[in-house]
Amino acid sequence: MDKHIEMSYCRFESFKILAKNYLDVVEHELFGEIQQLLEETDMSPADVAENLMPLSKKKKRDPDVCLAGLIEVLKQAKEDATVAKAKEEEVAKEAEAKKAKEKEEAEVKKAKEKEEGKDKTSEEAIGDNMQADKIQE
């Protein structure tokens, strides 16, 4: 059985905890840019932590390199989200246009059927008039 679990996205306060745990950094000059990108981008805490983890348990990673790498990943995620949103909007516009076209075609068809019904009614009326004229003669 598949279960979907809704998880929150990583925001700056969560990031600071991850930075402290993985890099032993409380403040850094890149935190301001990271805060801005985290507000603009939806990324899970696991994805953020992946960029902060040391390469091995014996060797610590350079905080500057890790944070710069995280900034690049966040920028890429932001760009991907923008592209995906644009594509989604384009698909929605196409679907809306298709729906409008189908509605218009249905209205034209309905009007045509109604017009054909009037033609038949007028033809029947003309036929009735012709029969009445023949009877009167």
Automatic annotation (TrEMBL):
It comes from Triticum aestivum (Wheat). This is AAA+ ATPase At3g28540-like C-terminal domain-containing protein. It comes from the Eukaryota. InterPro entries: At3g28540-like_C, Mitochondrial_chaperone_BCS1, P-loop_NTPase. Residues 92-137 are annotated as: Disordered. Residues 92-123 have a biased composition (Basic and acidic residues). Residues 10-81 form the AAA+ ATPase At3g28540-like C-terminal domain.
